[in-house]
Amino acid sequence: MMRDPQVLALLRKKARRLLRKRGYRMVFTRWHYFGEHGEKYHPHLNILCDGGWLPEEQLAELKDSIRRKLLPRSIAKGIGKDLEIQYRYSRSPKQIMHWIKYVTKASFRDITWDEPLANALYGFHNGCFAGTWDGSPKWKLTGTDKKFNALLKVREGIHPVSGKPIKWNKEPIPWALVEAQNPVDIGSGYYLLPPIRPPPSGRRQPTNLIELPDGDYRKHTNTVRRL
User: Fold this and answer.
1) Is the pTM of this model over 0.70?
2) What is the per-residue pLDDT across 107-128, written as a single tens digit (0 to 9) for each?
3) 124 and 183 in one domain?
4) Angle of helix 56-70 relative to helix 5-21, nearest 10 degrees?
5) Tally of domains in the chain
6) What three-state secondary structure class fits 59?
């Protein structure tokens, strides 16, 4: 069931709607599929949202409502376990940025980990927003984080180096071909490849050849020489 993209999309939608109804203005959801080395498919849903510190009782009630929304009680009772939910809050820009980088990192990095699942998830829109995101910026980039600045341009559909609109290739490319080019990871599953070397300009002339004079017998064809 959890290998079906439609099920994954439905569960994250339920989570976003629940949080919006409870007053959260901004909600972002994104699935992680595997651990660091792809040992086992273990999907878990990451949620970023505005909020605040919650008292223990209020936090417990929120977790319980999420569990009931995403996993029917009959199923939880039948399998003998329930959803494990972790909630963290911080006002530190550094900590918030750390969470953003963690949530947006790629977790399915090798098709050989589960090729049928990779084919099923191809084209699946993982990261989704809900709510109103029109508030004033909490902080601004200083220009020192080049990787994050590059990612912002990619999100806008602009190539981070040339500044031109990105034209996406609809066909998947084997990771081995990408890795052979020493790509730069800029986060959220995007990699920056080195520039393609342009072809040499003008006609290439071998440097070890010389022009023979017209009277040199070696300049004639083999037929003439045999005569």
Assistant:
1) no
2) 998 999 999 999 999 989 999 9
3) no
4) 140
5) 2
6) helix
